[in-house]
Design a protein that fits this description.
- Helix 4 runs parallel beside helix 7, helix 9 packs antiparallel against helix 13 and helix 14 crosses helix 16.
- This protein is α/β, with parallel strands linked by helices.
- Strand 5, helix 3 and strand 6 form a beta-alpha-beta unit.
- The chain is built from 18 helices and six strands.
- The longest helix has 21 residues.
- It is flat.
């Protein structure tokens, strides 16, 4: 099949003009998070119902203003599969907030299908087997291999027929409005910047280390992060956590000793090793009172619920589980445990109040609301 690789402003402008006449588009994105320091958007794949496959290169072309009218038009159907992270990438990197979504993963989950991945669905419905060769490809690499373009295009090529089949099944089971409600909610997803945290909390071994060892580890992690950012490489490709734990517990006295440590990249050590050795030595010169050690736990959320709240949540879970079994749905798809806790805390006394609990959908109230309200008493 022919794949149109769009890497110039003129070609992108012409292609978007042609796509604007399409009533439906299939969309997917590729990012570079596995290999690179930043998980920036690297490809935007679009397929038409007639089988035209286009791949836009956001590293070569500013797509923000070009694609925004196309993807934000609520009158155009936009088919995606598991599009929640793609929505975040499009919002962060292009300032685009798509509309008209029909998500095939959402549809499959509301039908109670056992396999929700795109590969499983295509194999089940169309006997199409997707290649796994480029699952961890470096999508920021240029030029892109032909096989990478084929792999990327396959993620959207079959979404139109798949969405049609799943939509028919949802219609037959009376669940199409459920999917539409979930998709409208997904359209509100936005990129939220993570709050910076002490890097040592992501290393399990740090919990068992002395304050001085923790301080050395923190310094080593900062050293690695600076190199990774400057080289645009994933931090673990600069040095694995285990190697940094080793130098934190037993700091090397020289670059030569550092290079002999298991897991240390010789080229990294040659270029930046002396800096790390120097920083570690400075930690050992600090007084104990100047060491931060392992940070105290940060309390997130409301904390563990009170015993009476947990007890009532268990009652609601039984109602949720019984209803999920009757509907043939995964329990978490019907209503998550966290949301059940929020419902207990809110203590709604009516359907309207239940719907007012953040995260609760209209379709969930319709199929489960009366049972939950009765259990809340």
């Amino acid at each position: 099949m022919t794949i149109e690789y769009i890497d110039s402003p003129d070609r992108a402008r012409d292609a978007v003009g042609e796509l604007g006449r399409e009533p439906s588009l299939a969309l997917d994105c590729e990012a570079a998070g596995f290999h690179r320091y930043s998980d920036r958007l690297c490809l935007v794949q679009i397929s038409t119902p007639a089988g035209r496959d286009l791949i836009f290169d956001p590293l070569r072309v500013d797509l923000s203003d070009l694609l925004r009218p196309l993807l934000e038009d609520p009158g155009r159907r936009l088919v995606m599969h598991g599009g929640d992270y793609d929505f975040r990438l499009l919002d962060r990197d292009l300032g685009i907030r798509p509309r008209g979504l029909f998500d095939t993963q959402v549809a499959a989950s509301l039908l109670g299908l056992p396999g929700l991945g795109l590969a499983a669905l295509l194999e089940e419905h169309f006997e199409v087997r997707l290649s796994k060769k480029y699952q961890r490809a470096d999508w920021a690499k240029r030029p892109l291999e032909r096989g990478m373009l084929e792999y990327a295009a396959a993620d959207t090529r079959y979404l139109h027929p798949l969405s049609a089949r799943l939509a028919d099944a949802l219609e037959d089971t009376g669940r199409l409005e459920w999917a539409e409600e979930e998709c409208r909610a997904m359209e509100e997803i936005r990129w939220v910047e993570d709050q910076p945290e002490d890097p040592v909390v992501r290393v399990k071994a740090a919990r068992r280390m002395s304050p001085r060892e923790v301080e050395r580890l923190r310094t080593a992690l900062d050293w690695r992060d600076e190199i990774a950012r400057g080289q645009d490489r994933a931090p673990f490709r600069v040095s694995p956590d285990a190697a940094l734990v080793d130098v934190a517990v037993s700091p090397p006295a020289s670059v030569h000793e550092l290079s002999a440590r298991k897991g240390m990249n010789s080229r990294v050590v040659q270029s930046w090793g002396q800096d790390l050795v120097t920083r570690l030595r400075e930690i050992d010169e600090k007084d104990d009172s100047a060491l931060r050690g392992y940070p105290p736990p940060t309390r997130r959320g409301p904390g563990r619920p009170a015993p009476e709240v947990e007890e009532l949540a268990e009652v609601l879970k039984r109602e949720r589980n019984r209803t999920a079994e009757e509907l043939g749905l995964d329990r978490g798809v019907l209503l998550s445990n966290n949301l059940l806790l929020e419902i207990v805390r809110a203590a709604p006394a009516s359907r309207d109040e239940l719907l007012g609990v953040e995260g609760v959908r209209q379709w969930q109230v319709e199929v489960l609301g009366d049972r939950l309200l009765s259990a809340l008493g």
